[in-house]
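Tip: read the tokens left to right.
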């Protein structure tokens, strides 16, 4: 469906009919033969002409054999986002529809389990690099991380309507794209691509719990679906346990803890609006006896300072959950991120009751899983509270990992003496 208002995609130029031909370095050839979804700028040794974001680029090896085809973007260090490897293919609306249909099929189990909010397309890991689509019940949110998708939005909208019809479709843009309006043709973060703007937060279900999300202005697309399985696991550990949820955002972990029988939950976050949403999420679920019985406190404060303050007041919790935002978006930030995880672990242990359970998570893709888990365990050793690991977990099913850089989420479940 499209909006009754002027079509925001009407003035976006279509990709060039003629495909670019690119030659690449031996190292890039090896990566592409291995199925990697990115061709970097430094991997290109020659090309047949100039191109615009979204033009199709065919990549050849040094013997002029087909390697891959993808979307070209001269504004990005990732020069081509690869759509297909190995043999020539026709990239058109039908191809796009088939890719989307495969993504829908992969996630078919989720609606059957009482979940109407989930990631429908997980970028590179679903064969559509630079593109994320999240479903919030009858609302779809498209998030672009590459300008290469702008000229394909019209085809994407039609293909989506064929495989996953929605009441409305919202466009979200990464910060990098917002900073390049000359390539957006009037599109903005929060633009409606189909239907009318939602009247307030959008409601959806996750494992039977009800949540709201601000799909036009909230972080990412409004919610973080990748932690669904870890939230459910935390809920199963929460019975009778006083719980602290650090970096709570809109209270996902907190609500699962309440459902699981936690008598008291503190949601700590620096964002007052996010915490207000957490309060509303609890209100949406007050029909559940365990949620209605739980005492839920909202604490708007800096996490580091608040943890130190809670320790000084001798507050102790049986379950402490620490799920910070990404701390290393560039390679030169990795060292600082590891130090932050180390400090957070120490602070969290400072408020964890003896024998309590600690859940520590990282969504920083540049911090490797070994580096993260090592930092957490070393911090525990330094605090003289060595961890007894229960499990190390990662992404939910709607966030598949099909190339190394796609494995960003790490989560540790452990107890401490």
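Filled-in amino acids:
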């Amino acid at each position: 469906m499209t909006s009754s208002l002027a079509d925001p995609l009407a003035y976006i130029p279509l990709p060039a009919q003629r495909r670019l031909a690119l030659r690449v370095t031996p190292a890039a050839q090896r990566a592409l033969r291995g199925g990697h979804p990115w061709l970097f700028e430094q991997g290109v040794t020659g090309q047949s002409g100039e191109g615009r974001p979204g033009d199709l680029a065919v990549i050849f090896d040094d013997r002029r054999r087909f390697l891959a085809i993808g979307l070209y973007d001269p504004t990005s260090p990732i020069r081509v986002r690869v759509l297909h490897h190995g043999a020539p293919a026709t990239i058109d609306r039908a191809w796009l529809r088939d890719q989307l249909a495969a993504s829908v099929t992969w996630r078919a189990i989720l609606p059957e389990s009482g979940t109407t909010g989930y990631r429908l397309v997980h970028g590179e890991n679903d064969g559509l690099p630079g593109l994320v689509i999240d479903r919030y019940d009858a609302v779809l949110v498209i998030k672009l991380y590459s300008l290469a998708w702008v000229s394909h939005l019209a085809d994407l909208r039609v293909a989506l309507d064929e495989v996953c019809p929605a009441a409305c479709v919202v466009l979200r843009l990464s910060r990098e794209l917002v900073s390049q309006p000359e390539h957006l043709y009037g599109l903005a973060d929060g633009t409606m691509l189909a239907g009318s703007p939602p009247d307030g937060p959008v409601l959806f279900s996750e494992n039977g719990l009800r949540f709201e999300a601000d799909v036009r202005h909230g972080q990412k697309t409004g919610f973080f679906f990748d932690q669904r399985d870890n939230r459910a696991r935390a809920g199963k550990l929460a019975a009778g346990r006083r719980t602290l949820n650090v970096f709570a955002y809109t209270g996902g972990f907190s609500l699962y803890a309440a459902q699981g029988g936690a008598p008291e939950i503190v949601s700590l976050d620096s964002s007052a609006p996010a915490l207000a949403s957490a309060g509303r999420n609890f209100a949406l679920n007050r029909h559940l006896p365990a949620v209605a019985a739980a005492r839920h406190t909202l604490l708007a404060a800096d996490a580091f300072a608040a943890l130190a303050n809670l320790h000084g007041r001798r507050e102790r919790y049986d379950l402490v959950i620490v799920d910070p935002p990404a701390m290393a978006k560039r390679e030169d930030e990795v060292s600082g991120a590891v130090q932050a995880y180390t400090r957070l672990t120490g602070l969290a242990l400072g408020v964890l009751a003896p024998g309590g359970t600690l859940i520590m998570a990282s969504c920083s893709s540049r911090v490797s899983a070994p580096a993260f888990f090592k930092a957490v365990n070393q911090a525990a050793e330094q605090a003289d509270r060595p961890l007894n690991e229960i499990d190390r977990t990662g992404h939910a099913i709607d966030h598949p990992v099909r190339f190394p850089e796609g494995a960003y989420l790490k989560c540790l479940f452990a107890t401490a003496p």
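The chain has three domains: 20-85, 93-202, 224-415. The radius of gyration is 23 Å.
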